[in-house]
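Re-run with default settings, no changes from the original entry. Doing this only to confirm the output is reproducible before filing.
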Amino acid sequence: MNPDEKQMLRDIAEQVAENNKLLHKLYSKARWGTVVRAAYWLVIIGLSVGSYYFIQPYVNQLMGVYSGLGADVGTVKSVAGGATDLLKNLGR
């Protein structure tokens, strides 16, 4: 092997070593990116569940008010229906 070929072989070996370092850095960054992305979604899901747990009493109270309002509307309809019948009977 002549000196030029040896020098080319050394250059190639250096480039391979440099590429290996870069690939290890890329792999490490990809791994950290996956960890950060998983943590991001865990925080979002955790905040959603925590918000629901915190707001649930207010939602239940609002649902109670809404169902009470529905019952009141039903009562008003029945009273109005009875009054309509009474007025019809008065006209006879």
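DSSP finds one helix and no strands in the chain. The helical segments are 3-90.
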